[in-house]
């Protein structure tokens, strides 16, 4: 049950922060935060991660929808199993973040990104992206270093 709460909470947090960004920032506007280490910059991402395939948004929807659906189904399947707590958290992070971005793609035709670090070649990202990345890193760590199978 806690893993479904994590999944749903990620979607709610992601959608809420994107709504705030769209309400308070104009497209392309950039506001410094955290001593100008980070900026809030509204960007409508029509492509995939890092704005890849920007001119192929239909293709992105076709590929991401089944992928997110698979992650959700897998999460529901492993929730019943005892143990695998970190695996369940990782999958909940990935599925929640993916679902948050998929909601944008379906409703708007683009994903709202708004966080930007003032580093060279740093992509603009959102809360959903963070959870996808954290979940993927955790899952990779478990695959590499955990002695028991992930399932």
TrEMBL record:
Q: What task does this protein carry out?
A: This protein specifically catalyzes the removal of signal peptides from prolipoproteins.
- Name assigned to this protein: Lipoprotein signal peptidase
Predominant cellular place of this UniProt entry's protein: membrane
EC number(s)?
3.4.23.36
Cell compartment(s), UniProt:
Cell membrane
> Pathway it belongs to?
Protein modification; lipoprotein biosynthesis (signal peptide cleavage)
Q: What HAMAP family does this protein's entry cite?
A: LspA (MF_00161)
Its membrane topology is listed as: Multi-pass membrane protein
> Which residues are the active-site ones?
113, 129
């Amino acid at each position: 049950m806690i893993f479904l709460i994590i999944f749903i909470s990620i979607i709610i947090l992601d959608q809420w922060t994107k709504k705030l960004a769209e309400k308070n920032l104009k497209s392309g506007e950039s506001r410094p935060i955290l001593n100008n280490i980070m900026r809030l910059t509204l960007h409508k991402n029509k492509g995939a991660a890092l704005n890849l395939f920007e001119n192929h948004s239909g293709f992105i929807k076709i590929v991401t929808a089944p992928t997110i659906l698979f992650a959700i189904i897998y999460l529901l399947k492993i929730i019943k199993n005892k143990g695998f707590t970190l695996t369940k958290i990782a999958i909940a992070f990935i599925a929640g973040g993916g679902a948050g971005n998929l909601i944008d793609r379906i409703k708007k035709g683009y994903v709202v990104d708004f966080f930007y670090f003032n580093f060279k070649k740093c992509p603009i990202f959102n809360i959903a992206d963070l959870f996808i990345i954290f979940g993927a890193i955790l899952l990779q760590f478990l695959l590499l270093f955990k002695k028991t199978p992930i399932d």
